[in-house]
């Protein structure tokens, strides 16, 4: 995601919880399935893995620091919010979810915390918790477009494209032409099998936020569906230049030579 600062609650104009896209339990660097990938791709993956491993020590120290802060002040909501981010980056999604819930309990009117919890729950497939969190955000700010995007994503995850379309319309009404809004529209159309429309919306997402990885990745999925392997590779590499820790992008990229042969 456009390498926005991976700080919880920061950067929402471009996407919810930016750190979710680059880290977490589903972002295994050099995934086992990719061990037999072409040499060039595997070397790229290993380089990323080495960079990520080099920051592990600092991540562990940061967790310890934040844990000390909330022990000293158990009402420090921002500390729990930061812990949620750090645990997610440390591939501990359930711990991240618990800390995000604590932040919401301490500051129940904080829309950002509810959106963060919603995205965490969505990314860990706790769809009921996600929907509840986004509805809580909207109860405090009925015009919060990011919450509508989150609700739409939850609807997509439950294969409810019509409901997701309603949420996307609301997100556009309150947020304007934002990349995540267009991307949600693309997902709605893709779920319905309208691949041409989906591609158009993904291109719109890229145009709105050209440094955001998600639009490139989703467009690449469409291009693979169409058999346009070269274009898919270009877009996947663009996505990975922004979000080098994306397991899904690495796996799709390493599958392209095989796709090309089929």
TrEMBL record:
Supply the SUPFAM superfamilies for this chain. TPR-like
Instruction: Tell me which InterPro entries the record gives.
Output: TPR-like_helical_dom_sf, TPR_rpt
This protein's UniProt keywords: Signal, TPR repeat
- Biological source species: Sulfobacillus thermosulfidooxidans (strain DSM 9293 / VKM B-1269 / AT-1)
Signal among the record's keywords? Answer: yes
The signal peptide, as residue positions, is 1-22
Q: Where are the TPR repeats?
A: 111-144
What this protein is called in its record is Tfp pilus assembly protein PilF
Extract the Pfam families matched here: TPR_16
């Amino acid at each position: 995601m456009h390498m926005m600062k991976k700080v919880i609650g920061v950067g929402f104009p471009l996407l919810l919880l930016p750190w979710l896209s680059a880290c977490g339990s589903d972002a295994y660097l050099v995934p086992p399935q990719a061990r037999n990938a072409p040499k060039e791709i595997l070397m790229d993956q290993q380089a990323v893995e080495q960079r990520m491993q080099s920051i592990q020590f600092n991540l562990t120290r940061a967790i310890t620091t934040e844990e000390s802060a909330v022990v000293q002040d158990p009402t420090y909501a921002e500390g729990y919010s930061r812990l949620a981010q750090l645990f997610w980056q440390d591939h501990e999604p359930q711990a991240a979810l618990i800390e995000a819930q604590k932040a919401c309990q301490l500051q129940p009117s904080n829309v950002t915390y509810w959106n963060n919890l919603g995205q965490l729950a969505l990314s860990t497939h706790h769809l009921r918790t996600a929907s509840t969190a986004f509805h809580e955000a909207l109860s405090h700010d009925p015009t919060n477009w990011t919450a509508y995007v989150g609700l739409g994503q939850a609807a997509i995850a439950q294969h409810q494209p019509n409901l997701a379309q309603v949420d996307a319309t609301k997100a556009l009404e309150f947020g304007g032409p934002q990349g995540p809004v267009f991307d949600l529209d693309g997902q709605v159309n893709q779920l319905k099998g309208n691949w041409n429309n989906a591609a158009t919306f993904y291109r719109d997402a890229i145009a709105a936020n050209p440094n955001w990885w998600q639009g490139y990745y989703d467009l690449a999925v469409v291009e693979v569906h169409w058999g346009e392997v070269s274009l898919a590779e270009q877009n996947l590499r663009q996505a990975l230049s922004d979000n080098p820790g994306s397991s899904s992008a690495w796996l799709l990229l390493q599958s392209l030579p095989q796709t090309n042969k089929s």
